[in-house]
Write a structure and sequence with these properties.
By secondary structure, the protein is mostly helical. Helices cover 67% and strands 3% of the residues.
């Protein structure tokens, strides 16, 4: 009888697996099935007419990622998609670095305010989440446009020949603007738990400001920095709007090429092959971040 009661009680706080069933079904239908279809479509032929695929096994889409067929019938190494991937990693990496340097001071500053001010400042940080990313991208586009505030100021300063809109700089500005809150919040979460008396003790013992920052503060907020890097780099890698609306097609990222193959090019298998490649590289990055997090913090960092 006692064993039966113990079995029914289970672990403290444990609930029935049936409660998780709706979420599991939703994730399976919304993520699992599209992911499987993407992998399957990448091994099929493109449709002869219109959009879609032809149900004929053909793995040449993966071959076309790296091999180009010339007009004379010869083949060579295709560097176009590698350059697009490099651009994606470059812009995502620069975005991550810039947001990290901008977020650490503001996160530490918010963490040192009193509770009422912290709540107001956190609301200000999360305010962009209340607005559609499309509207925010349109807003930043109007600001950096030649006829916008920045363009007008540059024109008056004699830099009318320099244009920000439709350049790689505009893409980076848009990426930093969109993903900055994703870096601030996890760093603030770590900074809020930091015992600032440790920094005061270091100052009392004669440590300089940069020494305290490097040897005490940064190691304490390192879990938040690592989480912020993952939260910024991964979605920035698959960003579409910023390079399309602000870069003007001059800074193609992998998401733009995938959208082009599903739209104008009507080559779904090749678009799926690019998607599978992006997913694989993203998983490699996640595992790398987890390994770095475990090495630096001694704890397993989970993002997926």
């Amino acid at each position: 009888m006692s064993k039966k009661v113990k079995k029914l009680e289970g672990r403290p706080g444990q609930t029935s697996p049936l409660l998780a069933l709706p979420t599991v079904l939703f994730l399976t239908i919304g993520i699992g099935i599209p992911l499987v279809l993407t992998v399957v479509y990448s091994f099929l032929d493109r449709a002869t007419v219109g959009m879609g695929v032809k149900w004929h096994f053909n793995p040449t889409s993966y071959k076309h990622l790296f091999v180009i067929e010339n007009l004379d019938g010869t083949t060579g190494f295709d560097t176009r998609w590698i350059k697009v991937l490099w651009n994606s990693f470059l812009y995502s990496g620069v975005t991550t670095v810039v947001t990290t340097f901008l977020s650490i001071p503001i996160a530490m500053w918010i963490a040192t305010r009193d509770e009422n001010k912290r709540n107001i400042l956190l609301a200000a940080v999360t305010l962009p989440f209340w607005i559609s990313i499309l509207i925010r991208t349109y807003g930043i586009r109007q600001i950096i446009d030649d006829n916008g505030p920045i363009g007008t100021i540059m024109h008056k300063l004699g830099y009318a020949h320099y244009h920000i809109i439709y350049t790689p700089t505009a893409t980076l500005i848009g990426l930093v603007y969109v993903f900055l809150p994703f870096m601030i919040l996890p760093i603030y979460s770590s900074a809020e738990r930091f015992d600032f008396r440790m920094a005061e003790a270091a100052y009392d013992l004669g440590a300089r400001r940069w020494t305290v920052l490097r040897r005490i503060v940064l190691p304490a907020i390192r879990p938040g920095i690592i989480a912020g890097i993952a939260l910024v780099f991964i979605p920035a890698l698959g960003s579409f709007l910023q390079s399309d609306m602000l870069g003007g097609g001059k800074t193609n990222m992998i998401a733009n090429v995938i959208a082009l193959n599903f739209g104008q090019a009507r080559n779904w298998p090749f678009g799926c092959a690019l998607s599978v490649l992006l997913i694989a590289l993203t998983l490699v990055f996640v595992k790398l971040i987890q390994w770095i997090g475990k090495k630096t913090t001694g704890e397993q960092v989970n993002f997926v």
